[in-house]
Every structure is written in structure tokens, then in C-alpha cells.
TrEMBL record, chain A:
Keyword Zinc-finger set for record: no
Matching NCBIfam families: rad3
Enzyme Commission number, as recorded: 5.6.2.3
Class of the enzyme per the UniProt entry, highest EC level: isomerase
Name of protein: DNA 5'-3' helicase
Any one GO cellular component localisation term in the record: nucleotide-excision repair factor 3 complex
Subcellular location: Nucleus
Keywords from the UniProt entry: 4Fe-4S, ATP-binding, Coiled coil, DNA damage, DNA repair, DNA-binding, Helicase, Hydrolase, Iron, Iron-sulfur, Isomerase, Metal-binding, Nucleotide-binding, Nucleus, Transcription, Transcription regulation
UniProtKB/TrEMBL annotation, chain B:
GO function terms (MF aspect): cyclin-dependent protein serine/threonine kinase activator activity; zinc ion binding
Species the sequence originates in: Glarea lozoyensis (strain ATCC 20868 / MF5171)
Subcellular localization: Nucleus
Coiled-coil region(s): 127-206
Domain RING-type as annotated: residue spans: 20-63
Keywords: Coiled coil, Metal-binding, Nucleus, Zinc, Zinc-finger
GO CC entries: transcription factor TFIIK complex
GO biological process: one example: nucleotide-excision repair
Name this protein carries in UniProt: RNA polymerase II transcription factor B subunit 3
Pfam families the record matches: MAT1, zf-C3HC4_5
Amino acid sequence: MKFNIGDLPVLFPYPRIYPEQYDYMCDLKKTLDAGGHCVLEMPSGTGKTVSLLSLIVAYQQYYPEHRKLIYCSRTMSEIEKALAELKALMKYRADQLGYVEEFRGMGLTSRKNLCLHPSVKREKSGAVVDARCRSLTAGFVKEKKDRGEDVNNLDLLEPHNLIPNGVWTLDGIMKYGEEHKQCPYFTSRRMMTFCNVIIYSYHYLLDPKIAERVSKELSNDCIVVFDEAHNIDNVCIESLSTDITEESLRRATRGAQNLETKISDMKDSDADKLRAEYDSLVAGLRGAQEDRDEDAFMANPALPDDLLKEAIPGNIRRAEHFVAFLKRFIEYLKTRMKVRQVISETPPSFLAHLREYTHIEKKPLRFCAERLTSLVRTLELTNIEDYQPLQEVATFATLVATYEKGFLLILEPYETETAEVPNPVLHFTCLDAAIAMKPVFDRFSTVIITSGTISPLEMYPKMLNFETVVQESYPMTLARRSFLPMIVTRGSDQVAISSGFQVRNEPSVVRNYGNLLTEFSKLTPDGMVVFFPSYLYMESIISMWQGMGILDEVWKYKLILVETPDAQETSLALETYRTACCNGRGAILLCVARGKVSEGIDFDHQYGRTVLCIGVPFQYTESRILKARLEFLRETYRIKENDFLSFDAMRHAAQCLGRVLRGKDDYGIMVLADKRFLRKRTQLPKWINEAILDAEVDLSTDMAVGTAKKFLRTMAQPFPSLDQDGVSTWRIEDLEAHKEKMENESIRQLRAEMEGIENGGGKEVVQNGNGKEEAQHMGDDAFDDAEAEAEMMKLDH
Amino acid sequence: MSRLKSQSTALTDDPLNDICPVCKSNRYLNPTLQFLINPECYHKMCSTCVDRIFTSGPASCPVVGCGKTLRKKGFHKAFFADLKIERECDIRKRVGAVFNRREDEFESLSSWNDYLEMVEGLIFDLVEGTMKEKAKAEETLRAHRAANAKEIEDNKRAGLEAKDVELQREREEKEAVRQRRLAILREQEEDKLDVEKERREMLERLARGDGDANAITKHAQKVILKKSSARRNLAESNFADTANGSAPSNLSIRGLKKKVAPKAELAYDPFGGLDLKPARYTLQSSYENEWLDNAKNNTLHMAGGYSMNEYYSRTMFEAFSGLGIFIGDQVVEKSLPAAPATIGTVGAAEAAGGRLRQEMNTDDVF
Ligand code: SF4
Ligand SMILES: [Zn+2]
Ligand SMILES: [Zn+2]
């Protein structure tokens, strides 16, 4: 389908479009035109990715700037989905236009997924694959070794023409690599500069250690999209936080000792190399590869820009001095780890103490990571994985010396409050999500943050410290009510249910939850998913249910499967669950609102007809890191503890709810079972909140069961997709009609405003005009009443 | 050292840490075993041995092959588990007391870096060098100390001052955090009272029964909401003010500025180098002007000490003053307030430490 938004012709690869997709694209275009950032919330299952891609591709092909698209997603499967969509879109465009455009789209993922090397690719851990590949491909190795079994022969090709135009899915590029004997990983990495669309994981932009290497060559007018971004603040924080344990320190010491022997070896055999390194450090030169492209260099969050240009401090210039320096620092950390009480301190106070005892100044500490990299390069070390812990310590040193604010050191000697055997961990934790995000916002003029559940919208700009030009949440237009969200606050015996600490283990509450589960397992066809706030709670409640005989009851209707922290077990459970849903036995999956299942796995159609959220999924509030973060948020961004906690809980709840509804032809029941949800209802995404009728907010179990039964009965009625036309899906005619209507509307508005100016309060009357009247106004357009009403619903909000 | 006081008495995994090399008593038998070292030779022994051997006066080290004469006074607990590092740090302390130049004393960064490297090399010789290197390094150290005694003193003082300033800043930050927290508590208290009051009023109105019950409840809710949001806005603006006001003047020295080497001191100048000579005109000894002639030639005028030159210079000054001055340039840029993130971080530290916090009842907050 082809239509225009403003002057921009958009090719949309489907014959029908959802109204919210159209609105979404309009807002995207507005953002791109204005050149700013935006936050958009689009209901899940309404084709967010395809709308995004088709608009942006149209945009980049139509305007002469050809702005690049960097599309970041969270998981591999999402990246692959996006690539497939992009491929279909480009094919459609070629068919429609009659020629194939100059276009290259590519995904990038870790070496582990893209490696072709016969032995390297068999390694299990990603870090090992990286390290082994590096030891095969490092510059000095290449110089020395003739290419043997390594399949990497990239240097034989032009760097801008490693791979022909087109969209390359991960599989596609693997195949191409195999055929042409060239490494898929390096192909996509080097071709990034020559791509129109790049699809990769968040980390390639947010993690300073990776971003510097991977993303620095991207130009500043790129359009950056963070999809599924409801968790982006946590990704930011994780990318800048490190944990140090006694074990990692021990291994770091070993690494330092290795370095020492390597240095003395080299002094005997090849002293010139060391001297050359030393000379270049004296001259303040960075390694050649680093300053290859000065302007496009991304401000590395680990080091401020002005510092990057400075020379390495004199007291760590010599290799042996530097190693002694590292050893001293590690010894210091070891000593600190011996303390048997919880300590939390800010970086400045840590540095002051450090200086007092080890005479380590802040500045050389800052250069630690960089100096180590240079040394490793000079020493031509190949077994880099051995130096991983040392690298971690060095990164920690750099971060702690660079950031005074927004970071905190927390030393926890014991794993739990009651533990006897100490297992100290030094958390260096980032409190401020904006720090990792800042370089991205500074560098790229347009950053789009979008997800199915990203409410309340204003929280994100506040937390990540940026300004938006557009901030929108779209309702879901439906031809019939295809999902039923309910809030259940009490059991059939009218006792309030809640997962609050005071009542969570009371038998009456547990029994009521159990009854709720039994009732819904009776009435739900096929699959049902249940979310608990935490593993701990899930375990305790399951064992109580077992004692009450509830599970036996449920067992009659459904198979019961449980998510565990173990990924393999969980995937097995999922598989069984799927089979049971397909063959009619039906199953219940018990899982945790913050676990893997709640984030990445879809339960569409028969896989999930009911989702039951037992309790509000609050975070574990006794965690010191969380406490610190709350305090910081309150002081710095004026976000109250309770606001944040409840926001965080609700975004997870919304994620869980969104799992069952993955498209407009899908249907499902969403049950929020906790009395506290009543108050938090407004924090749900707009599309869910709007679908909760006032009569369905304060239900008891039996009332909820009644409503659900009625709902399922309507869902059982045949529903020809034709009925959706013009309401929840638009053909091109509907779209044209809508556009015309919008135009008329805006003219009317203008006119009304003029009148309003003429005769005072007239304006308000027009705007609040009642729906029926307007529907009649529209009567002579090609609209049926239902659509007009749907439209009115939107206007009302 | 105070934070390390509570060092564990638990067994460490390194057996060497658990047995006294002198008397061979171990931690299994004596859980309070504590090791001491003497910076003369860094041989470690348990506190009982130290008491036993050195209480009656200086004695030689009991470790085989050492024999250095030690005094009880010199013994202390080692900070590092690795005694080599302990020794290195002691040496650093000694050298650092002599080579204590600061970066701003150097003309350029590279010379500062060279200096740092030189010192580092010296320390390295002292720590790991051969006998000869050590002796040479010691000699350099002594010579430098003798030659630069005064500067060393100055720098030491400067260092102490900087430390004081730092401490002061830390204290101020802590205090700011405390104040902020108190303010927030008060605010919450007020909030609660207000809501309470509003609710009571609503109930009263309902009881009186004037008007539609629904409307009253709705209205009351709206009022409460509006009030709290208004208060929040107010608080936010207040917050911005206090952030400006209470922020300590920006003392965090980035330490990157390069300064010129100190100039020879000039004679005292009360105007601080301000030049009063007119730049835009030259004052002449006399100006031709007929209406001045009268005054010039009239002795009656001059008799009282009236000076034409004074008059000239004043008039000229007035005529030219203000030229070449643009207001835009003169407005001093308002310095930005220190980001309150500092305070947030300090506060966060306390929150995480669990001190100073009221019980956080977060699960059932509403
Ligand atoms: S260059 Fe490519 S194929 Fe070779 S080891 Fe590295 S990732 Fe694997
Ligand atoms: Zn002893
Ligand atoms: Zn001795």
C-alpha cells in the first residue's frame, strides 16, 4: 500500500494498515523533521517494527541526506525478526518501484553467533570466542603468520565492497561468508559505515567498552532507534557497573605477574618494541587505530573528551612502573575486601583513602584501562582471556577515577544477612542511567525510544535526562473487545488479596489466590500464564498450595509447569508447555515477573489465553544498590522513592500482561490480582488502562470469573476479518478518507479558533462538542458510525 | 585505618597467614592471633612474640638470617597482606615527603610527566634495585632534601591546606544532604496533614448534606491532587534555589590547568597593575579656548590655588570616559551551580550504608 505523509511517499508492505500505525508514522516523521528525540508507546502486537522501518526507509530514500538508521533491539530473536521485516519491506519496495534501490541493511551480533572458524565457533562462552578470535586476527599475528586454517581473508577485498547490496539477515550473511571464505563477523563490522540500516543490540551503543570499538565511525545525523526500550535505564546502569570479588582479584594478581614476566622476557629479546611504545607514550601519541577518525569519535563515557587527548601520566609510562602500579592497586583492593562490615562510599572518599595508603593519585588511575590496552598490544599477548580479570580491575580503576558523581562503591562482605562465611563483593555501581545515555544523545540528533509498555512516558526523559519533541502513547483501535483486563482485589469471601509483606503468607490470602488460579484454570482454553513477584514468593506459595490441595485441583484441568532460574530447565518447561497447549491438554506456566519468560517470550493465540499477575512485582527493596539508587534519583531528578518503585513494578506488570496479546486477531484475559493495583491503574500503558471498564476494576474472584466467561463466549463467535476493515484496519481508501477528515478537522479547528477569538468562550464549546453530533457531521463522508466512534474515543483523550 | 579495625579473625585461605613464623602458634589454637611487622626488616611475627622479645629493650630480629636490631616501638600492624607492597608504600611515603612538587609548578604537562617518571624511577630503584642502585637513590634523595628544604616545606603546607579544603567540602556536602533530607521529611509530613484536613472537610460537607455527594468527593479529590502537585512544583523551585545557594563554591580542581612558572615578585602596586594613563587622548599642558582665557589670565582666580591642569584633566577624562566599554562584555557570566548530582551521590552512599535512614516501608506504600 502506498500513501503520503506530508510530502513523503511511504510504501507499506501490507494491503492494510492499522490506524495507530499511521499515527505512529506521522509522529515519527514529525520527530525526524524537527530533529530531536522522542518517546513513543505503541501497543504490543500492532506492527511497531514494520511501521518504523517503512517510514524511516522511505525517509532516507526520499530525502537527499540519506540519514542512516541504527536500530537497536534487545535480544537476538528480536534482531532477527527486525531483519526479516526489513528484508520483506525492501522486496516490496523493489516490486512497487520496479527497480532495486541502492541499499544495504545488515545485522551485527557477537562473534559467537557469526563465527565460521571450525574450532573457535565451538567454544561455549562468548568471551572465549572473542578472545580466541582476537588472538587469531590481531594485527601482529597477521603480520607474522601466513593465513592457515583461519577463514578470515578480509584484507584481500576492498573494504567498502565486502558484500553486495541488499538486506542481509544473520543466516544470509553466514551463508555468504561460507561461500566466499570470509568472516561474517568482520564483514558486517567493517561494512557498518556503508550500510543504510544497521540492526544490533543496545550494548553496541551503550556499553562504553564496546561502543568505542564498534560504533565510533557512525556519523552524527544517524537516526537511532531503541526498540523494546522499557528497560533501557537498567541496561545503561549495568553497562557501567562492575562487581569485584576476591576470586577476580586473585586472578588479576596472577595476570599482573604474567605481565611482569612477559615484560622482562621482552626486555631481553626485543627491547626495541618496549622502547618504541615508551617513546610514543612520551610523545602523547595514541595508537594509530584509535585516532584514525577524529571527528566521528564517540565521546567515550569512560573518559571525558579533553582527557582523551592528554598524554599518559609519567609515572605509568614505563611498562614495569605500570605493572607495579597495578599490583599495588590490586593489593589495596584485597585489603579492603577483608573488612567485615558493609561499607558504602563515594568515589572521592575512596580515592582519598586510596591515596593515603598507596600513594596512588587519581590521574594515573584514570589512564589505567588505556595503558593496559597499549601494553597488551605491545607485548603481543595472544591469550587475552587470561587477562580478563586484570582488564576488569583496570576498567574499574578508570571509572572510579573519572566519575565523582552518580557512582557508588558498596562493599558487601556477606552474601545474605545471615551468612556466616564471608564472600565479599565490591560493587561499583552506577546510579545514574543518564551517564551511559549522554554520549548517545549528545552525538545523534535523533534518538527514538519506543516500546509496547513505556508508561508513564515522562519518567524516561526525566531519568535519562533528555528532552523530547514528541511524546505519545497510542491507544489500540479494536473492532471488538479482544482483550479483557481486570483488577481482582478480593477473593470470593471478600477478603482483600495482596502480596504485601504483612499479608502475603496468611492462609486466607494464599487460599484466595489458589481459588483464583483454580477458577481460571477451569475456564481458560489452552494455555495460561501466571506471574509472581519473585522466585522466593513463588516457591513459598506453591508449597502452601500443595498443602492446601489446590495444585491437585488445578492438575485436573491443566498441566503445571514452573520457571526456574536455570535457563535450560526453563526452556524445557516452555517446550512442554507449548506442546500441551497445542494438543489440547492445556497447561499453566508459573513464572516470575522479572524472569526471562516475562521479557522475551510471546504467548500468542492458544499459548496464552489468560495471564494472571499475582501481586505487584516490586523490586527487592532491601538491596543496598537499589536503596542507593532511589536516594540518588530523589536527590538528583526529584523522583520519589515510591514513585520509582511503583513505576518499576508497573512496567514489569505491563510487560507480563502484554505477553498474551500479540496481534489484533488474538484475544486474551489479563488479570491483575492485588488490591494495590487499584491505585496504580493509571500507571499502566494507555492502551491497557483504557480497556479496563470501570465495572471491572474492583472485582472479587467470582465476579471476575463471571465476566471472563461472558468474554470468552463473545470471543467464540465467528468474527470475519472483514468486520475489522475501516475500524481497526484500514484499506487505502479508509486511509485517504481519514486523511481528508483530519484535514477538515484541522480547518474546522482553525475556524473555530477564529470564531473563538471573536466571541470569547466559543472555542470550548466546539471542542467539547458531543460525539453524536460530530458523528453526524461526518455522516456524509465514507464513514460508518463505528469508526466515527472509534475516532471520537481517540479525540476524547 | 579506622575502617579496617574490624578485620576478621576468621581463617584465611592462605596457611601462611595463620602461623607465626617465630613461635609457630597458629590461629586454630589462638583465634586472636595478630601479626605485627617492623619497617626495619618487614619480618612478621605475632604480637605475643613481640611482647616477649622486645619488651625489655631493643633486640635483634628472631628470624633466621636477619638479625637486625628492632625496637618494640617500631612494630605495627601491616595494612597489606603482601608485605612487599607494604614496604613499597612505606618507601613511597618517604620519597613522597621529599619529592612533593605539584603539577602547577611546572611549565608544561610534559615536564610534569617527566618529573613523575623520574620520581617513579627513583622509587623503583629503592624498592627493587641492587645494593648499588639503592645506595645511589638514597644519596639522590638526601641531596634533594638538602637542596630544596624550603620548597619542600612550602609544598607540604600547600598539600595540607588542600586536604583541609577537601575535608571542609566533604563536611559541607554531608551537611547539605542532611538538611535536604530533613526538608523532605517535613514536606511529607505537611502533605499528610493537608490530605487529612481536606478529607475531614469533605466528610463534614457530606455530613451536612449540601450538594451532590458524588460531586463533593470528586471535587475534594481534585483539590487534594492540585494541592499536592502545586506543592511539588513549589518544592521543585525551592529545590533549585537551595541547589544554587547551598552548593559550595566550586573547589574541585581538575588539575589539568597549566600554569606558568612563578615570576619574580614585583614591587607592591596598590592599584594592582591598573594603568591610570589615558589611552585615548594625550593631555596637553594648555588648551586654546576663549572662555577659558578669562580664568587663565585672571590672577584672582589663580590666587586661591585653582589649577588649570586639574580642570583640563578632569574635563578630558569625563569626555572620554565610558568610550570603548560595552555592557555586553562586562556582564560576568553567571557561574553555573555545582550539579546537585554530587549531593545525590553522597546521599546515596548513606542510604546504601543503612545509616541515617528512616525505615523504608516500600512494599505497602499506598
Ligand atoms: S575472524 Fe571470524 S571466523 Fe575467524 S575466528 Fe574470528 S570470528 Fe571466527
Ligand atoms: Zn609468635
Ligand atoms: Zn628481620
